[in-house]
Amino acid sequence: MTMSQLLPDKLVEEEILCRVPATSLKRLRATCKLWNGLFNNRRFAKNHFDKSAKQFLFFMLTKEYRIRSLSVELKGELGLLDPLHSVQFKITHVFHCDGLLLCTYEGYHRLVVWNPCTGQTKWLNHPVSRYKGYITNTPGGNITYTLGCYEDKKSHNSSYKILRLVEWEKNQRFEIYDIKSDSWRILDVNPDCILMYNHSSVSLKGKTYWFALDEKELDPVVLLVSFDYTTERFARVCLPNPYGIYRIMSLSVVREEKLSVLLRRRDALESEIEIWVSNPIDEHKVVSWSKILVGDEPRLGLCRGTSFLVDEEKKIALCCDRGICNQDTTKDYFFLYIIGEDNELTQVDFGASSTWQLHSPLLFNYVPSLAQIQ
């Protein structure tokens, strides 16, 4: 007899399957029609997200414009086939939120929201923006996209929005796309600072975080700014040094609970890099920071776009960067640095590209889920 015959369906669904990790549950999908149907059930997806054991995987955006898993739980590379042209969709930017990936490609007028665990996708064309007499719909340079969640007031299910930043001559325009209503609209908001779209941004608990510049100060001061997808408003978040001026900055998420920042101050020793981790992010608490690592790798951060991941318990950081190798200055190389608490450093070369890449290497956390896109 099968489990479904021995136990009530409700018990199997709410007390057993809801607690199975997403990647393991995916392998059970073909067991029966009932279990397969759960992957399209919003109520089950929400219960699974709340109850299941979370898997924290490490992903990397490679120089081949694909996503590679660095975790043993899910090995190999992940790629997307564009159904419109039946070719591989090249990914130059990727943004993670609740197990969903927002993927874009510079110079190509399409973007996709993708759940690698369930295979569900939603393809979108870039909207055309008319800004100060210019018409643009390319996602590179001065246009960036982020993805965030909010709770639908009627269904109490998680829904998702895409925030689009169009930056032109230090002016900023924000547009938002609600996946549920399938519509774009212009936001009448002013963050009162300049978002640094060419540095990393992350999503955590319904908000996206960026570095930003306050140019009203005598020397432009670096800030941390959040955008709330429920209220659709910006807010400032304190950094370890609220008046710091930094040369290298990068953001990361720690186990879907905390923020982490990698900083190199302009006035610090040439090679000193600091990695800080926040307290658990809670809208009712002030953000505070603890320094967990200091590195002295002079090559890290020479190119814009450094990314990193942190294991807070083991006091280890993985940092990804690109640069030019001393032995061959004609090619673009991707490097992975492993920094330990004792400042021991290991370098891994991910190979070279004969052409300069459109994107910087990107390390990011990925938490598999059954999140529904639409």
UniProtKB/TrEMBL annotation:
Query: Which SMART domains does UniProt cross-reference here?
Result: FBOX (SM00256)
Q: Which organism is it from?
A: Brassica napus (Rape)
Per UniProt, residues of the F-box domain are 7-48
Specify the protein name.
(rape) hypothetical protein
Q: NCBIfam families in the record, alphabetically?
A: F_box_assoc_1
InterPro entries from the UniProt entry: F-box-assoc_dom_typ1 (IPR006527), F-box-assoc_interact_dom (IPR017451), F-box-like_dom_sf (IPR036047), F-box_dom (IPR001810), Gal_Oxase/kelch_b-propeller (IPR011043), SCF_F-box_component (IPR050796)
